[in-house]
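FW: tagging you since you asked about this chain on Friday. Here's the raw sequence from the shared folder, copied in full. Didn't touch anything.
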Amino acid sequence: MAAIGAAKLLATPGSLHSSFVQRDYSAGSELCSPGVVRIQTRPKWRESIVCMHLNNVPAKKMQEPQVESPKDPLLLRVARGEDAERTPVWLMRQAGRYMAEFRKYSQKYPFRLRSETPEIAIELSLQPWRAFQTDGVIMFSDILTPLPALGIEFDMVPGKGPVISTPVRSFDDLRSLRSMDDPDKELPFIREILSTLRAEINGESTILGFVGTPWTLAAYAMEGSANKNLLVTKSIMQNDPAILETFLDHLSEALVVYICHQIDCGAQVVQLFDSWAHHLSPQQFRRFSLPYAEKVIRRVKERYPETPLIFHANGGTGKLHLLAEGCNADVIGLDWSTEMQEARKTFGTNRVLQGNVDPMVLFGSEEVIRREVERCITEAGRSQHILNVGHGVVQGTPEEAVRLFCQLARESGNCQTSSEPKQKQVVGV
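HL: got it, structure written out here
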């Protein structure tokens, strides 16, 4: 049981119980008490059983994992630039409120408790993999998760999103920040989440970690909450850019440590989310986002050259040429407003692209979903491509639509197979 640490929560009615019981697979199913979440473990892999608001309904057992293939998992191979037997698939925000099983947690526990309690975060990370057989399992977390380690606290307020009560807006604020010295001490749940996911998946899928880019984290921390115009951040950018640039440097150093920590804990691929890139003009992106993201990518690659990194810019339209010229991420993630055909022409046939179906397509008919997925895969060239949505899965999306989306990727096996990665041209900012 050492792989899982018990959550330090009181067992009040309807609360999370941190009682872990060794389960004999031959003993059949086990009854759960009403209102109890129980997560049970077994050596070498972990079986998560969720029993919430169930009245003596037997909990279902997961299938025992198959023997691990000697090959690396599909998504990892494609992210490295290898051709493969088919197009891999995962979805941004694949663990989300569109899933009924996920809502049993989100309606009961606040976000940070869910994302920072390993037992819950592991369960939420695994739900879409069990339901849809995604080729990537991304840890349930948030791009703001590393900020408290730097002295920037945040909370998730229902209906409003992240709120930072003490924004960073001056050199005095910057001087009060801490460096990322010991992630195991400052963010102890990360190792348990990623290492357990890696052990449980056992090579059947690829474990993804993720972070926000320096620009996106700086903008959140300066605004204090979501703001469609970024009034505070843009004012600082225009009137005293040295404050912003100093903050971006500080965040870059911290993110190098944080990404390396995620890889050390078990992440096989890491995505950098530039969620607020759409707030920047191409010229601003060239100055305030890309150089700092590229600094992080370069430094991580110096330590972990074989670990693929994905750079995803929300609002990348109009910036493709900058990414083609100045981003050395192994994979370029595309948002849904970008034409895949145009992106393939811009980046060439040897660059791995990810995306980029409009997530609202998943509200369409089966015919519509099939048509749009086929178009995306075809325009990407049926190779050097990871199928994904171009933005996070939206609340209310039918689960059957996500299941079909993933199924279509599994049916895409028309790629020429090769075990050798293609040569990727190194670019400079």
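FW: Confidence is low (pLDDT under 50) at residues 1-69, 415-420.
HL: agreed, and Residues 241-265 form the longest helix (25 residues).
FW: great, closing this out.
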